[in-house]
Automatic annotation (TrEMBL):
One family name in Pfam for this protein: BPD_transp_1
One cellular component (GO) term of this entry: plasma membrane
Species of origin: Bacteroides fragilis
Lineage summary: Bacteria, Pseudomonadati, Bacteroidota, Bacteroidia, Bacteroidales
Protein name as catalogued: ABC transmembrane type-1 domain-containing protein
Any single biological process term in GO: transmembrane transport
Length: 252
């Protein structure tokens, strides 16, 4: 997304917020249930440290699951592309694992001694949710390589390691980064959901706690904080991708 598109998106979102403010002020709805956007943003400013602490806790959960998901998903895709036995044994297992509702595993984690209500349970959920997009997009990128390039590398160097390092990894990087963008969004959803169900801190816990106390302004503030956190992570990732010299080399 270029700078002009970002400005247009910001202006459109601002317009929607102003429209919501006007409609709610002219409606007869209770502000305790549907607070004005100005009330929500005012609460965020007044209690900024509270929401920043929640964002920090959720960020730890996201990164704790997303980083190993990126490394393992990327590595497993390369391994399966190189090994017929690995493709035969592991690919069906990976595909079937995506049919399992991840939140349905949380009650099972409570019966496992080293998981339970711990931070590790939330990390496992984030890992399971964010793993597949990186894996499948990297595998797709490797399969898109022209067979003539592969044959050329076999002629100049019979080493599989060199073929992987100088051809398959650079060629699949744009696909891997696309998968990572999807995984970041999934990781935010997974982290917040796990915090709502079994967490004792973080934005998800704050939203759930606010709803139980019927403090809907605080609940909306938590939701806005989730949007801000996910958007910030996407912006940082896009900046990294756009400035990646290795990716520019891969696109040539």
């Amino acid at each position: 997304m270029n700078r002009r598109s970002s400005i247009y998106s910001f202006l459109i979102i601002t317009l929607y917020i102003l429209l919501a403010e006007i409609l709610l002020r002219f409606s007869q709805s209770s502000t305790e249930v549907l607070p004005y956007p100005s009330m929500v943003f005012k609460d965020i400013v007044y209690h900024s440290s509270y929401y920043l602490n929640g964002m920090l806790e959720t960020t730890y959960t996201i990164l704790g699951g997303l980083i190993p998901a990126t490394i393992i998903g990327w590595s497993l895709a390369i391994f399966i592309s190189e090994s017929k036995l690995g493709n035969l044994l592991l690919r069906p297992l990976v595909d079937v694992s995506q049919l399992i509702p991840k939140t349905a595993l949380l009650p099972l984690f409570l019966s496992i001694p080293f998981l339970g209500y711990s931070f590790l349970s939330k990390i496992v959920i984030v890992f399971l949710i964010s793993f597949y997009p990186i894996f499948i997009d990297t595998l797709l990128g490797i399969k898109q390589i022209n067979i003539q390039y592969i044959n050329y590398f076999k002629i100049i160097s019979p080493s599989k390691i060199k073929t992987i390092w100088y051809l398959k990894i650079p060629y699949s990087l744009p696909y891997s980064f696309n998968g990572l963008k999807t995984s970041v969004l999934y990781a935010v959803v997974g982290a917040v959901t796990s915090e709502i169900l079994i967490g004792k801190s973080g934005l998800g816990y704050m939203i759930d706690y606010a709803c139980t106390k019927l403090n809907f302004i605080q609940a909306y503030c938590g939701i806005i904080s989730c949007i801000f956190l996910g958007g910030s992570m996407m912006i940082i990732l896009n900046i990294f991708i756009n400035r990646s010299k290795y990716l520019k080399y891969a696109n040539k």
